[in-house]
Amino acid sequence: MADADKEERLKSALWYSIGQFVDDECVKQNLNATPQFIGALTELVYRQISNTSRDLETFSKHAGRRIINEDDVMLLSRRNEGLETVLKQVLDEMKAKEGRPAVPEKKVRGRPSGASAGKGKGKAKQ
């Protein structure tokens, strides 16, 4: 099967799933959504998935691995504190079920408190 054909099948399946979800929500909230809205939302979600998968692959390759793991996912979520918190909770729950230790807390980077405000190496000349 050609890559273009696979991509079209994936987009069609995504369009169907998003359409079902939007229809269910519209019924619950007594709203209406146009096919154009569903199409635009599908394209947005597809592009986000594509970008996310590319980023995860890049992080994994940079770490010298061929398999994406939880470190790559946590790295991806680093700029979204809410998402990062939720993912850490879910990961901790999964690890607890497996009997593994929880995700360590994020290391604080930067100067330790009380460090001099000057720049560069060494002491300033007096």
Structure summarized in a few sentences:
With 126 residues, the chain is mostly helical. The protein has helices spanning 3-29, 35-62, 70-76, 81-98. It has a domain at 35-103: Histone, subunit A.
Verbal overview:
This protein is mostly helical. The protein has a domain of 69 residues: Histone, subunit A. The chain is 63% helix and 0% strand. The protein is extended. The mean pLDDT is 87.
Characterize the biggest β-sheet: none
Broad CATH class of one domain: Mainly Alpha
What shape does the CA trace take? extended
Number of extended strands? 0
N-to-C terminal Cα separation, in Å? 73 Å
Family: Belongs to the TAF9 family. CENP-S/MHF1 subfamily.
Organism: Polyplosphaeria fusca
Keywords: DNA damage, DNA repair, DNA-binding
GO molecular function: chromatin binding; DNA binding; protein heterodimerization activity
Quick tags:
mainly alpha; 126 residues; single chain
Topology of this structure?
Elements: H1 3-29, H2 35-62, H3 70-76, H4 81-98
Helix pairs in contact: 1-2, 2-3
